[in-house]
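Lecture 7, part 2: worked example. A protein chain together with iron/sulfur cluster.
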Amino acid sequence: MYWRQPEIKKTKTVCTYCGVGCSFEMWTRDRHILKVQPVVEAPVNGISTCIKGKFAWDFVNSPKRLTTPLIREQGRFREASWDEALSLVARRLLEIRDEHGPDTIGFIGSSKASNEEAYLTQKIARLIIGTNSVDNSSRYCQNPATKGLFRTVGYGGDAGTIADIEQAELVILVGSNLAENHPVIAAKVKAAKKLRGQKLLVLDPRKNEMAERADLFIRPKTSTDMVWASALARYILDNGLADREFLESQVNQVEEYRKSLEPFTLEFAEEVTRIPKAQLIEAAEMIGQAESVCLLWAMGITQHSHGADTSTALSNLLLVSGNYGKPGTGGYPMRGHNNVQGASDFGCLKNMYPGYEKVSDEKTRAKWAQAWGVEPERLSLEVGSDNFQMVQDADTHKIRAMFIIGEETAFADANTTNVHKGFEELEFMVVQDIFVSRTAEFADVILPACPSVEKEGTFTNTERRIQRFYPAMPPLGDSRPDWQILTELAARMGHDWGYAHPSQIMDEVAGIADIFAGVNYERLEGWKSQCWPVRADGTDTPLLYTDGFHTDDGKAVLFPLEWKEPDEAQDSEYDLMLDNGRMLEHFQGTNQTGRSPAIDDLVPNWFVEVSPELATERGIEDGSWVKVTSRRGSVELRAVVTDRVAGTTLFMPIHQGKPGINHLTGEHHDPVVNTPAYKETAVRIELMPQG
Ligand code: SF4
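Predicted complex, written out as structure tokens:
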């Protein structure tokens, strides 16, 4: 069957999966998605996409989509009208607020919803409920990186654009499986290497595809990255490789920082990280001698008990070598979800209004109160609870109600056994999603939302680039765009905001939050885009820090640190460490990718990677059934014997399995940002009878 050209609708959309932010045309006829067509005008990807952006769209028309609100009654869900469901949600949230206080209600915004929808989520929490307890999934991934950037250079976003990464003389990948998690950026790095001789340095406990292509691949002991980063910085300072002029004119605390580096000798780093001294020197020389360095990091750094410190150490290293504020330089935390950057930018954070404006600052509060037409006292100055605290506090009834939008918390949080227990203790739980997710199974009310191809809005990618997406088809059944649901809900709680189009929401944000001052839908029309901060005249900022840093005096800060051991270690009972991460084909809990048979068939089963040396020692063969047990629980799955992992480190994908990897992970977390240390899980492995 083929469709004639005039019957085909071509709609510009932005990918719903990772933070690269690829945009393309979606060709549809009625609800049929005929193909995804990349176009040269796309600012990030041009004519490239990866397998997910190109093919993983079957979920849109899945028969499992939610098409009507559901209310739990006597332990079962029954269909309900929007009027009944929204009235119930409004009434119960206001009752709990009035009876127990605003801070007993927590909101988790979606990293898949639009910027405008993130804004409305926090507006309901702050203005109507009166709490700052609003967060998003960046708590579980890149908040430690953001903290490291706040401490050193000032903005919680990538220092430049993907074009800067392409033009760098040296690209460093740390704890980032770029080829599988951000494939289109990886393709650009591969091309730059091949065509221009760009140098590539990879540091990772797992030998991923980019490691195989690297000029230098280094395998540190897991959770020790802060030590090698500090040792390289010390070597660069001690051996005349630092950018002296830059340090003198643009950086504060140089001497304090230099003093803090005293313990970080090459010998100490070799002992702690198990990286041979010669490799440490080679890496330091590569960095010190390169004209321009981009350093990319991801959850291999952040999901540890001291991920914020390690992220800070990486940014310190870039400062020492003068790699900020020039084309082809800077720190680049690779954002995971397509709009995890936007969810934070637009205020789904416990301590920040949209545009990273502090909730605890009285002047800031007065500004937002005036914009929202209320007395300042109506808005809380107290920092709220984050995702991690909300779930912990549900167990003790400090949190009594949760409103979760598009997040698979019941699968993605660490130690899911405890998470489920907390959810069961809640008085009231609302989930707004496109499927009855594992999280929605705990809800009292489920509100059916729309995926991006059925609505309009903007997403912000990893390089702070704001792009519009347009509806390729109408909402399925009685589902609704999240911004409409939230607007309706607010009206039922006495706040008639009257938004008729998401552009009005963006105009409102632009009128309040400084970094979005010049953002509007006209300037983002079609394939146009803007990287924040955007001045009122519409000038955007692809490369940050060209005129100084985002600090009080415009200077960067070298932030002194101390080495701290990871919170969970191997012992005689749990003698292995479990690493985990994503695969190219799937995304998160497979709620979307798992509904594309062609993709699901490529990786149908969950597995654990075992090193050849460990397999030989334990009698494990490729395909053996094994049981992996942590201090929290056990899972059974097949072993894949591969030299991608080494020694006593195992690796599991995060996507599949029942009960899933977070049945094993624990609640130990980074105390600075409350990010669980997913990648510090001590386990043991046992061979199972063949099933
Ligand atoms: Fe989508 Fe990311 Fe793939 Fe681009 S690289 S098509 S944004 S999943």
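The first helix runs from residue 51 to 55. Residues 324 and 517 are 24 Å apart (CA to CA). Keep this in mind for problem set question 3.
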